[in-house]
Design a protein that fits this description.
Jelly Rolls; 31 strands; 15% helix; globular
């Protein structure tokens, strides 16, 4: 019975869409410009329904989706959770004891570290290197239980320090999970001695983000030692979380800087990293993405530093965004719409976000959003003076003219 009722509501909604009509929004929602029907069949066992917020809705919604509202067929506001899978990583860093720092001219700088007697899993090492010059090099990582017999666990991990060049630095190397007490780090640049002052270890746990292309057009240009891509007309409400690269180049390593701007002239660094493709211990190893702390901006710029290497001819970056989902609990026999397009709305606060956990949100039944329609009864929420600035300027002109007339009259009669 429940399935039949919800299916009937869905069919009615589809019929309205086919006629190009949408039921008018109540006066409560007159300041929201758009409404899109939620097309669903059944809320399933969890009682929750999830609907993806398309990019075209995000582009027209307020920043950070603050104006999204779920409204039933009687115009009542329905609580929801704005859900995303941003991914990320966590790491609990702890210092290791440095042993036997050494340098072999023409071969490597080496340091052995003691992780301690306690067997704790680790897979990342952060090297503190004191340097007065920039560098790019590789690190060979070996593990041992007795500091005498070694097994290489990572042949070539890239690290760099390019602060003087304005690019950034990354002196963190990763390797397979290890519980070995001793680890040996060799910087495979024998042209100089590296001053490694400390090494921290951590078990880094990474979860993949759900990402989709943001759809921004990037214009490319070439400058000495670097390739640059700049977005043209980015949408300020669409946050960027990653830059993903595509190339058929079989082997390379390039530092990358990601910047944002509100005017296309003044730029702010948001992230840096490196992209590469190589073969290590007979196995391919690839990194073609640079994460960005999620942010909205009017313009984006991606710079790949080639240094003295030729540019990668087919390299193409794509800006990625994390899609949002609206998750709510529908009532039997009711239809729902997602309304949006009110730049003055503030983010709602519902207790539902504290009552359901991530597993329940993941298990929600998938619905889809129909075509968005303009609100026929839309009324601009901006104050009257903002909507009619010409009146304000006219009044100001009249006032200035009156003041000028009085001033002239006062001078004449004085």
């Amino acid at each position: 019975m429940r399935r039949t009722a919800l299916l009937l509501v869905t069919l009615v909604s589809i019929a309205r869409l086919a006629r190009g009509q949408a039921a008018p929004l109540p006066a409560t929602w007159q300041h929201w410009q758009f409404a899109a029907p939620v097309l669903m069949e059944d809320a399933g066992g969890s009682g929750l329904v999830t609907v993806n917020v398309p990019l075209d809705v995000t582009r027209r919604a307020a920043a950070n989706w603050a104006d999204l509202r779920v409204v039933d067929n009687d115009g009542r506001e329905t609580p929801y959770v704005l859900y995303a899978r941003p991914g990320g990583s966590t790491a609990d860093w702890r210092p290791a004891t440095l042993l036997e720092p050494s340098f072999v001219a023409g071969q490597f700088t080496q340091v052995v570290v003691d992780a301690g007697a306690e067997s704790r899993v680790h897979n990342s090492a952060r090297l503190q290197i004191t340097t007065a010059t920039d560098f790019v090099t590789w690190v060979e990582i070996a593990a041992s239980d007795d500091a005498r017999r070694w097994r290489v666990v990572r042949e070539r991990a890239p690290i760099y320090h390019l602060l003087l060049a304005g690019i950034g630095e990354n002196t963190t190397a990763t390797y397979p999970d290890s519980i070995s007490r001793y680890h040996r780090f060799r910087l495979l640049d024998g042209s100089r001695r590296y001053d490694i002052t400390s090494v921290d270890l951590a078990a880094r746990v990474t979860s993949a983000a759900e990402l989709v292309p943001a759809g921004f057009t990037l214009e490319t240009s070439q400058e000495p030692e670097r390739s640059i891509w700049t977005s043209s007309g980015a949408v300020a409400t669409l946050p960027i979380a990653e830059v993903r690269f595509d190339t058929a180049q079989p082997e390379f390593l390039r530092p990358v800087v990601v910047e944002s701007s509100e005017d296309g002239a003044r730029w702010q660094r948001e992230s840096s990293g490196e992209i590469y493709r190589m073969t290590e211990r007979g196995q391919p190893r690839t990194a073609l993405n640079v994460r960005v702390p999620e942010k909205s901006a009017a313009y984006w710029r991606i710079t790949v530093h080639n240094r003295n290497d030729a540019p990668l001819a087919d390299l193409q970056p794509v800006l990625q965004t994390v899609p949002r989902r609206v998750v709510f609990r529908p009532e039997l026999g009711r239809s729902y719409r997602l309304v949006f397009g009110n730049p003055r709305a503030t983010r709602p606060q519902y207790e539902l976000a504290r009552l359901v956990d991530a597993s329940a949100l993941d298990a929600a039944t998938t619905a889809r959003l129909g075509d968005a329609r303009p609100n026929a009864s839309y009324a601009d929420p901006a104050p009257w003076t903002e909507r009619h600035p010409e009146v304000l300027w006219s009044a100001l002109g009249v006032a200035l003219a009156a003041v000028g007339f009085l001033a002239v009259r006062t001078l004449r009669t004085g």
